[in-house]
Every structure is written in structure tokens, then in C-alpha cells.
From TrEMBL:
One of its GO terms (cellular component) is plasma membrane. The keyword Membrane applies. Signal peptide: none annotated. The keyword Membrane applies. This is Monovalent cation/H+ antiporter subunit B. Belongs to the CPA3 antiporters (TC 2.A.63) subunit B family. It is found in: Cell membrane. InterPro entries: CPA3_antiporter_subunitB (IPR050622), MnhB (IPR007182). It comes from the Bacteria. Keywords: Cell membrane, Membrane, Transmembrane, Transmembrane helix.
């Protein structure tokens, strides 16, 4: 028997975007306040899980055709590459660089290599979490 889940599916679509944009906020706020790539990745994964609960795994895989194993690999390469790039400049491993730039719309903004490292952590966390959840969800 197929149930009519119109209300939960409509609500999940709206709440997904609210959770996702909150995860983006947590990601960017993490450099100066608690948060960052790890927590932002977990919140993003929870938003995707909400879609899986409201719809089903096959529908979400059709909507978001992401290979999460590649996402994990990309995140690891980005995080380790950002951490190791300072060694080529003769600095210790994990030395981060920053400077202030005058960007057209944002004005004077500081750009950090730590944000690239956090992006790598974010991709790893989302990829690993979703791989685990999809693996469990595909078992019968």
C-alpha cells in the first residue's frame, strides 16, 4: 500500500534548504566562532538524510547523483594539499596563510588557506556520512 506523503515531502523540501543554508553559515562562521568544516558537513548530511526520509533513497540518488566516494577523495586531497603546501615554501606542515584583499562586492576581506582546509574536511565528512547512510539504507 502506497501512502500519501505530500505534507512531509513538501515540508522536507523547504526545511532542506533552511538546514543547508544554516550549514553554509556554520561552515563560514567556523573560522572565528565554533563550527567549521566538520560541523557544517554533519549538518549538510542531516539535510540530505531528511530528504531520504521524506522521499526514498532511489529518488534522492536521482535528484542528487553524487558519488560520495569521489567526494571523500576530493576532500582528502584538498585538505592534505592545503596542509602540505606550506612545506614547499620551507614552513612547517599545517602553516596557514592569510591576507586582506579588497574584493568588488564584499569590500576589504581576509582570505585564509584555513578555509580551503575546512572545505576539504567538509567534503570528507559529507562523503563519509552519506556513504555510511546509503550503505545501511541499501541493505535489505
Amino acid at each position: 500500500m502506497k501512502t500519501n506523503d505530500v505534507i512531509i515531502q513538501f515540508t522536507a523540501k523547504l526545511v532542506f534548504f533552511m538546514i543547508f543554508f544554516y550549514a553554509v553559515h556554520i561552515f563560514f562562521a567556523g573560522h572565528y566562532t565554533p563550527g567549521g568544516g566538520f560541523v557544517g558537513g554533519l549538518v549538510t548530511a542531516s539535510a540530505i538524510v531528511l530528504l531520504i526520509v521524506a522521499f526514498d533513497l532511489k529518488t534522492v540518488q536521482t535528484i542528487l547523483p553524487i558519488n560520495y566516494i569521489y567526494m571523500v577523495a576530493s576532500g582528502l586531497i584538498l585538505a592534505l594539499g592545503t596542509a602540505a603546501i606550506s612545506m614547499f615554501a620551507g614552513k612547517p606542515f599545517f602553516t596557514h596563510y592569510f591576507d586582506y584583499y579588497n574584493l568588488p562586492i564584499l569590500g576589504k576581506t581576509s582570505l585564509h588557506t584555513a578555509a580551503l582546509f575546512d572545505l576539504g574536511v567538509y567534503l570528507v565528512v559529507v562523503g563519509v556520512t552519506m556513504t555510511i547512510i546509503q550503505t545501511i539504507g541499501e541493505d535489505e
